[in-house]
Amino acid sequence: MNQNIQIGLSIGNSRYHWAWFLDAKLQSSWDTEYLTIDRYSALFPLDLQSIVKANLTDVNSIPIYLVSVVPHQTTLWQELPQVNLITLADIPLINLYPTLGIDRALAAFGAGEIYGYPVLVIDGGTALTITGINQNRCLIGGAILPGLRLQLRSLAMGTAALPAVELPRQLPPRWSDNTPGSIASGVLHTVSSGISAFIQDWQQLYPQSRIVFTGGDGAVLINYLQANLSSSVKLDYDLLFHGLSAILI
Question: Which residues are part of the catalytic machinery?
C-alpha cells in the first residue's frame, strides 16, 4: 500500500534544512546549501529515493511544507505549486506575537509536543534565541542575540586590527594573554553566563521544565554550559520538524 510522502523545508539564514515524512511521521532530516528550486529532488537521501520509486510517485506531486525566515527565498519557493507555506496561524500555541519568527515558534511547539510543557528552547543558530512556553502552551517570552559565530565574525568585520576567530569546541580560558584568546573569552564567557542566567530564572519559575537545545551550535553550547546544566537538558536538532509533524498529523 502506498504511503503519503511529505517534504519539510526550513529556510534559515545560512542553509536549507530538509526533512521527509511518511504519513506525517518524521523519517529523517538533512541540510544543504542554498540551491536552485529545480535541483532539490536530486539531493533526496537514498531511503527517500527508494520510497518515491517504490510508490511510483511523481516528485513534483510530493507536497512541500515551507518554513522560512528569508523573504526572497519564500517568494522563490512559492513558485512551485506543491509548496504549502506554514505560518504562525498554523501553530497551536497561545500569545504568539505577529513578528515572532516562524522557525522559533515551530521549534518551541515541537519541543513541547515531544518533551512536554513547560519547556525552554535554546537555539544556537545564526541568531541565538531563547524561548519559553508554559504548561498551558502559552509563550512567556524569550530573547534574541547574535549567534556565537556571528559575534566572533563581527569583530573581524567591524575593526581594522582584530582577527577572525574560529569557534572552539570547549569553553576557552577566561583570562587570555593573546588577542584571539581574548576575543574567544570575551564572547563565549559572556554568552555562556547570560544563557545560564536565563536558565536559572526560568527554572525558578518552572522547576519541572525541560530545557532543550537545538541549532547548529546546540552541542557546543551544552559543552560550554555543562557545569551549570541538569539532567533535564536535551539536545534535539529536529525540534522544528517535530513541530511540523504534529501540525501535519
Answer: 103
